[in-house]
From TrEMBL:
It is found in: Cytoplasm. Residues 268-281 form the SRP54-type proteins GTP-binding domain. It comes from Caldicellulosiruptor owensensis (strain ATCC 700167 / DSM 13100 / OL). This is Signal recognition particle protein. Belongs to the GTP-binding SRP family. SRP54 subfamily. One of its GO terms (cellular component) is signal recognition particle. One of its GO terms (biological process) is SRP-dependent cotranslational protein targeting to membrane. Part of the signal recognition particle protein translocation system, which is composed of SRP and FtsY. GTP binds at residues 107-114, 189-193, 247-250. The keyword Ribonucleoprotein applies. Composed of three domains: the N-terminal N domain, which is responsible for interactions with the ribosome, the central G domain, which binds GTP, and the C-terminal M domain, which binds the RNA and the signal sequence of the RNC. It comes from the Bacteria. It is an enzyme of class 3 (hydrolase).
Length: 443
């Protein structure tokens, strides 16, 4: 996410920190590099121009140039301006005071609208709501079936009418169905087109007038860059949107759409799609996103993901096992599964402050390695997981065959596990802090 832009901005800041005392010329040269980085990231030209002017004006002030840490103050100004650019504060979903909310999902075909409708329903269900999905895309083949499938995946109901060709009627009938089934949230999945045309807009206006939605949410693909911004501008002008859901943000290395859309349309990004799984929809926090872009990590989101993924009771049991040195391969597998729930490795690492990844990092290889470890442990018997010392040559061959790996892979895992246990033993020693340097078995 934004890796290309993030790397360039961090390089600019590194140069500033290296200078110590800054002059007005230093700041203006740095801002030229920031400007170029933003333009290369496909950020709207007018947005870039305003951003650079605002930062420069604040950064060349006497209180910055005369301070003890001018570089840090300049970075803080860039951060604050970027937070404003991304929307300022987080824009929450508006719920109707009546207790019955209607959300109308709109967007072009291929933006991920139907899947996002299901993800939003799943997110609201976790918050204690009882959502209903309504299938109003009567044109795209299999669109209704797709919505029914995503509804099933997140465990919510879906209203579908395979006989009607009237999207307005389906929307109204869906709302009545929701009321009679005690749903308090209705999410309407509308039709999209490959491009914006009047026929599409007229149908969406008719649905809007008929159901009077609490909010109209536009779904756009972050990877289309400025095209996404143009789409948002057009939908807002004709339909009047309340917020934006940006999909495929995890695959967007540039970030132009996210950094431009609020300034151009005046409408906030409310949610971000950060993966293919049904739980991969997150509230959009401008401050956290700015922190990630500038290489400062995102500890709050990392903590929230950990709290969602990690079972507290299991964590306490694991702590006891570690202290008493009873940690087994079964516990190791359990921890691996909980870490995987937090999301892809690339996403987790991007949230850790201070980690700067240069160039192309093969996260896919890391993901494959985790899958390989899981397969090897799953191919063991319960006795083998509890006591790996019983795993002899014939057992290793059987485990390798069962997991689709090699005996060398099995040996490597067993060695890593033993190294880990030795390291944990050192940490559990109350006197380890008194030692000058701990010699880890793998160093």
């Amino acid at each position: 996410m934004f890796s290309s832009l993030s790397e360039k901005l961090q390089d600019v800041f590194k140069k500033l920190r290296g200078k110590g005392k800054l002059t007005e010329k230093d700041i203006k040269e740095a801002m030229k590099e920031v400007k170029l980085a933003l333009l290369e990231a496909d950020v709207n030209y007018k947005v870039v121009k305003d951003f650079i002017n605002n930062v420069t004006q604040k950064a060349v002030g006497e209180e910055v140039l005369e301070s003890l840490t001018p570089a840090q103050q300049v970075i803080k100004i860039v951060y604050d301006e970027m937070v404003n650019l991304l929307g300022g504060s987080d824009a929450k979903l508006t719920f109707s005071p009546s207790g019955f909310s209607i959300y109308m999902m709109v967007g072009l075909q291929g933006s991920g609208k139907t899947t996002t409708a299901g993800k939003l329903a799943g997110l609201l269900k976790k918050q204690g709501k009882n959502p209903l999905l309504v299938a109003c895309d009567i044109y795209r083949p299999a669109a209704i079936k797709q919505l029914e499938v995503v509804a099933q995946k997140v465990g919510v109901k879906c209203y579908a009418d395979y006989t009607s060709q009237d999207a307005v009627k389906i929307a109204k009938d869906g709302i009545e169905f929701a009321k009679s089934n005690r749903s308090d949230v209705v999410i309407i999945d509308t039709a999209g087109r490959l491009h914006i045309n009047q026929e599409l807009m007229d149908e969406l206006k008719n649905i809007k007038n008929a159901v009077k939605p609490t909010e109209i949410l536009l779904v756009v693909d972050a990877m289309t860059g400025q095209d996404a911004v143009n789409v948002a501008e057009a939908f807002n002008a004709q339909l009047g949107i309340d917020g934006i859901i940006m999909t495929k943000l995890d695959g967007d290395t540039r970030g132009g759409a996210a950094l431009s859309v609020k300034a151009i349309t005046g409408k906030p990004i409310k949610f971000a799609g950060v993966g293919e799984k049904m739980e991969d929809l997150e509230p959009f926090y401008p401050d956290r996103m700015a922190s990630r872009i500038l290489g400062m990590g995102d500890i709050l989101t990392l903590i929230e993901k950990a709290q969602e993924a990690i079972d507290q009771k299991k964590a306490e049991e694991l702590e006891k096992k570690l202290r008493s040195m009873q940690f087994t391969l079964e516990d190791f597998l359990d921890q691996l599964k909980q870490i995987k729930k937090m999301g892809p490795l690339s996403q987790i690492i991007s949230m850790i402050p201070g980690i700067k990844l240069k160039g192309d990092v093969d996260f896919d290889a890391g993901e494959k390695e985790l899958k390989k470890i899981e397969a090897i442990i799953n191919s063991m018997t319960r006795e083998e997981r509890q006591d790996p010392s019983i795993i002899n040559s014939s057992r290793k061959r059987r485990i390798a065959m069962g997991s689709g790996t090699t005996v060398q892979d099995v040996n490597r895992l067993l060695k890593q596990f033993e190294d880990m246990k030795r390291m944990m033993k050192q940490f559990s020693n109350p006197n380890f802090a008194k030692k000058g340097k701990i010699k880890f078995p793998f160093m």
